[in-house]
Design a protein that fits this description.
Blueprint (H helix, E strand, L loop, with lengths): L1 H16 L9 E4 L3 H4 L5 H6 L6 E4 L1 H15 L1 H18 L2 H15 L17 H25 L7 H10 L2 H24 L6 H20 L3 H9 L6 E2 L2 E2 L5 H25 L7 H9 L11 H16 L13 H17 L5 H10 L1 H6 L1 H12 L5 H13 L9 H17 L8 H10 L10
Parallel strand pairs: 1-2
Antiparallel strand pairs: 3-4
Helix pairs in contact: 4-9, 4-12, 5-8, 6-7, 7-8, 7-9, 9-10, 9-11, 9-12, 10-12, 13-14, 13-18, 14-15, 16-18, 19-20
């Protein structure tokens, strides 16, 4: 089975290449595929047979992307709009002449602003939908006039495809949906970018999701920026917008788009709540509640009840004897005592983030001696892979380097090139790179080179 092979590969890489025992692996991050996180024969379930303390972490970035894609599938109008975006992009991408004419129209309307390039919609790219809608919103007038010219045949043979697309795009309904999606997807994009940050941890997830849901709910009662601007421009039944004639600008159309927007917002919020549940029995939630100073009650007298509620979850998971070593990861009674003694210090450090407090516990010898079980939990928090964004960036870096024209690159060479590309800007300073000419000369002297012969 694929899961068995992947499980063996994970164990072999960790134990052979990095000399890390599986008993020291406490978290496993993945994209949430059934082969990874299924209950019975998945990679996670097989790894838990070796280490029962292992916690599965579904990447928050993937969860956010899945929430939006599934919400879009619930609303038929969004699916239709998505298909029209793909059709418009394909119409221009298949002809450089059409693309040039579209840019010419944009230069007329945009003036000194740079022309907008229509974006291709990718199902596997997290921000693809937002970028496509934003580009369409900015280039809408140029697209409409370009399609109208192609349909009329003024520049050649009339295009039936352009005529059909023009009927879809040059309407008040399409314009309102575009403006509405610009605002909704902007909120979702901000959430996705928050989860793509390199310093994201457990404490960031719940507040970010709650803020996004609140912003989306507010849009149901108050029209957002772009949507409100278009509504105002189409007031009194105007049949023109940005020098483009439009059809179906009626009050019924506006009500239909508003109802569709409410359905889409409700679907997004529902999917976000399903994908990011506040499960008080979750290990990740319990770790955040116990070790995050900002989650503690304001009143010090409420600390004991707050801590014991979530410590019970952690004790059930981490205090049972290990399958092989027969030694529990933490001692239940000692953990409760340590929490009661340490909670007042944590309450006084309420300005610290979750990561900062965990680093404080680990870096202070006094705390390491006094609170050994809490220090173990703090170590687990710092190694939990909340997101797999770095893996996705690695895949993108690999694909940019190993193209179909460089398919014979061997793994050691590919690994070196990826490290240079991925880490050079962040970790290499000028002093480390000052001998690059010497290294280049040595590389050129290894054998006769066909490229880079003069410097």
């Amino acid at each position: 089975m694929v899961q068995a092979v992947m499980c063996c590969s994970v164990k072999n890489v960790l134990e052979t290449d990095f000399h890390v025992s599986m008993h020291k692996v406490f978290a496993f991050g993945s994209d949430g595929a059934s082969a990874m996180v299924g209950r019975n024969n998945s990679v996670t379930s097989r790894l838990k047979q070796v280490n029962q303390y292992l916690v599965n972490c579904h990447c928050v970035g993937h969860r956010c992307a899945l929430s939006i894609s599934q919400a879009a599938d619930v609303v038929p109008q969004i699916r239709t709009y998505r298909d029209s975006l793909c059709a418009v992009y394909s119409f221009y991408a298949s002809s450089s002449i059409r693309k040039k004419k579209l840019l010419d129209f944009q230069e007329i309307f945009e003036g000194s602003k740079a022309p907008v390039t229509l974006k291709q919609l990718h199902k596997v790219r997290w921000l693809s939908m937002s970028e496509c809608v934003s580009a369409m919103h900015r280039a809408w007038d140029g697209v409409c006039l370009s399609l109208e010219e192609e349909a009329s045949g003024r520049s050649g043979h009339p295009s039936a495809v352009a005529k059909g697309l023009c009927k879809q795009v040059a309407t008040a309904k399409y314009l309102l949906i575009t403006a509405m999606l610009c605002d909704i997807l902007n909120v979702v994009s901000q959430l996705s970018k928050t989860f793509q940050a390199k310093d994201v941890d457990l404490s960031v997830v719940e507040p970010a999701v709650t803020l996004a849901i609140n912003k989306l709910d507010l849009m149901k009662s108050e029209p957002s920026e772009n949507y409100a601007f278009v509504l105002d421009a189409l007031s009194d039944g105007k049949q023109q917008y940005r020098n483009v004639g439009i059809t179906d600008n009626t009050e019924q159309t506006k009500r239909d788009v508003a109802n569709m927007a409410h359905k889409f917002i409700d679907a997004i919020c529902s999917k976000l709540r399903d994908r990011f549940p506040q499960d008080e029995t979750s290990i990740l939630v319990a770790l955040d509640k116990v070790l995050n100073p900002k989650r503690l009650p304001v009143k010090a007298c409420d600390l004991r009840a707050h801590g014991e509620k979530y410590l019970t979850v952690l004790i059930e998971h981490y205090s049972s004897p290990d399958l092989d070593c027969h030694t529990p990861f933490i001692e239940a009674n000692n953990l409760l005592t340590e929490w009661r003694n340490c909670s007042m210090m944590m309450h006084a450090e309420r300005t610290l983030s979750l990561s900062d407090l965990c680093k404080l516990l680990l870096s202070t010898p006094q705390y390491v001696l006094q609170y050994p079980n809490l220090v173990k939990l703090a170590t687990v928090v710092l190694i939990i892979p909340v997101t797999s964004v770095e893996c996705e960036r690695g895949f993108s870096c690999q694909n940019r380097i190993k193209t179909k024209f460089r398919a014979r690159l061997q793994n050691p060479t590919l690994n070196n090139l990826m490290q240079i590309t991925y880490f050079s800007e962040e970790h290499f300073c000028a002093e480390q790179l000052q001998d690059y000419l010497l290294a280049l000369g040595k590389w050129k002297a290894m054998r006769e080179r066909c490229l880079l012969t003069q410097y």
